[in-house]
Write a structure and sequence with these properties.
Number of helices of chain A: 3
Number of strands of chain B: 0
Strand content of chain B: under 5%
Largest sheet of chain A: 5 strands, mixed
Largest interface: A-B, 21 and 25 residues
Structural class of chain B: mainly alpha
Shape of chain B: rod-shaped
Oligomer: heterodimer
Order of helices and strands of chain A: EEHEHEHE
Order of helices and strands of chain B: HHHHHHH
Mean pLDDT of chain A: 87
Largest sheet of chain B: none
Number of strands of chain A: 5
Chain lengths: ~100, ~350
Amino acid sequence: MNTEVRVDKSHRTITIAIVGRFDFSCHQAFRRSYEGAGEAEEYVVDLGGTDYMDSSALGMLLLLREHAEPRSKVRIANCRPAVRRILEIANFHTLFAVS
Amino acid sequence: MNASPPDTDAAHRTSPPAATVGQAVAASDAAVRRELEAIGLQVGQARELLADAIARLGRSFHTLEGETASQKEMIAGLIDSLSDSSTPAANRVSIRAFAAETSAVLQQFTDLLATVSRQSVRTVYRIDDMTQELDSVFKLVADVNEIAEETFILAVNATIEAAHAGASGRSFSVIAGNVRELAKKTQRFNDQIGDQITKAKGTVNEVRHIIAEMASRDLNVALAGKERVQQMFEQLEGFERFLAATLERATGAANKIAGATAEAITALQCEDIINQLLGSAVGRTGHIDRLLASLEKTIASRPPEAVNPQASAELQALADARRSADPDPVQQRSMSPGEVELF
């Protein structure tokens, strides 16, 4: 379970990178990365290093979106094919900008 | 070759060949008349067979017409039930509509997974907050314990001072003793509070684990399911297209059959014309008969003339040969399947 949550706060953008499995074990680190960080214009969730996502990841992303909207946007970037398929069946491409 | 019935012509066969022209003509006429009679018989037969055959053909083609029409109706009914634009909806077999509905249900199910996860994770965030608050209570309890500890020490010091004060310090000593007791009780209560909070934290952790499990659903089963369903729909749609195309071709074929049948029914109208032609041919044989009779009379009115013996013998032979031929070679009177013979 080598999950890392890396946070980068610069130019009013908060980038949260998940390396390894994006599952329940990330929930505290994920939350800490944006709560209490003040307002950002954009939140970017970088899934370039993510090889697995379960439904708890969907829950975490939805809560991030609740926190961000309506002032800011949440973008999900660098999805691998397997992760992208999961986002598509969950219809997340209609809620987030997915790339 | 059928055997001829015993005939009364036997006498003719053994009579000598014609000697005069008049006799030769008479013999020749008789032979021709026999042929004309046979022609009449056979034409009559032909007309009977023709009438029967055409009646059967007519019935067959009308049956074919009827069946083709009902076939076209059935195909049209199938095509209607497949198409989206037809009404009434109750009879519609729309694979597309079914696919859309099932897709929607699958989507609802997946959305539910995401929603349950969101609520679960949110709950865990609240539990984490609660754990922090419980830890704050722990800290307060520790602070209270400190105060109780200091109170106890103060009470002990007070007791010592009271002892120094002697008799006047005795009541004070009692009070100090009570305060020591209270301090001790406080610490015992604090310990109990600490235990309860520890239990509460334990329970809260259990709850967190339960929710964590609920929130962590592997999505690959849903993903595989959705992809499989998608495949099935594509196959079903392909089948529906194939069905529609085949029904169109079937309609085309049915139309061609109907056209060909109509042509055949029209062609059967030949019966009238053929009957007329046959009737006219028989009429001509009657005419030939009368011409022969007239010729005989003309020859008979002349003085007798000798005939060439060779020519006369040839004529005799011809007449004999034809006489023994069967005037009715085809026995059939109708085209019914039982009567068809190979001849």
